[in-house]
Amino acid sequence: MVDIDGVISLFGAPPNAPGGRGPVDGSLHSIDGMIHFLSSSAAAHLLDLRTHFDLVWASGWEERANEHLPHLLGLPPELPFLRFARNVPATGGPAAGQAAGQVTHGHWKLESIDAYAGGRPLAWIDDALSPACHEWADARAAPTLLVQTDPQQGLTTREAQLLAAWARELAQA
């Protein structure tokens, strides 16, 4: 599961500007009228990780990820993407339109991620993993790895190596 903002589309000062955190390869793009600094390093790591993982967009971008990222970063076209319920409360209480007794796991992405993953092993890369995400991951029967990124650096070599090592370990088990 791959988030985009804070993983591929980086936040904060441009990486080489005063206040930035060092060089990150990438470029600025206008996407739907918003400027995004897209990390080509993160894209390269995702391409390498495809040997171990089936990549799935887990981002509020939903289908727009496939409209923009493949041709801008050389990523595979038409990756699966998740759709998310709207108005999911951060507290985990019922959202408007939810049936009584149906509650979220406490993070707006968890319902969709859980439904898509089912009982399969799962790695999730995101810059905004909450304690609810860790509780959910710990409670899953299937192996689950949460990888938090720094939103100014995105997916770096450190996280990519962690993901690859975890996948190799699972393959040997």
Question: Any chance you could write out the topology, listing elements then pairs?
Answer:
Layout: E1 9-10, E2 26-31, E3 34-39, H1 40-49, H2 64-73, H3 110-117, E4 122-126, H4 131-139, E5 144-148, H5 157-172
Parallel strand pairs: 4-5
Antiparallel strand pairs: 1-3, 2-3
Helix pairs in contact: 1-5
Protein architecture, described:
The chain has helices spanning 40-49, 64-73, 110-117, 131-139, 157-172, and strands at 9-10, 26-31, 34-39, 122-126, 144-148. It is of the alpha+beta class. A three-stranded antiparallel sheet has the order 1-3-2. Strands 4-5 form a two-stranded parallel sheet. α1 packs parallel to α5 (157-172).
Task: Note the main sheet.
Answer: 3 strands, antiparallel
Number of strands: 5
* C-alpha Rg (nearest Å): 16 Å
Helix content: 25-40%
Total number of distinct structural domains: 1
Distance between the termini: 21 Å
Mean of all residue-level pLDDT scores: 86
- Name the beta content range: 5-15%
Pick out its properties.
two-stranded parallel ribbon; 5 helices; 173 residues; globular; alpha+beta; three-stranded antiparallel β-sheet; 5 strands
Structure in a nutshell:
This protein has about 170 residues and is α+β, with helices and mostly antiparallel strands.
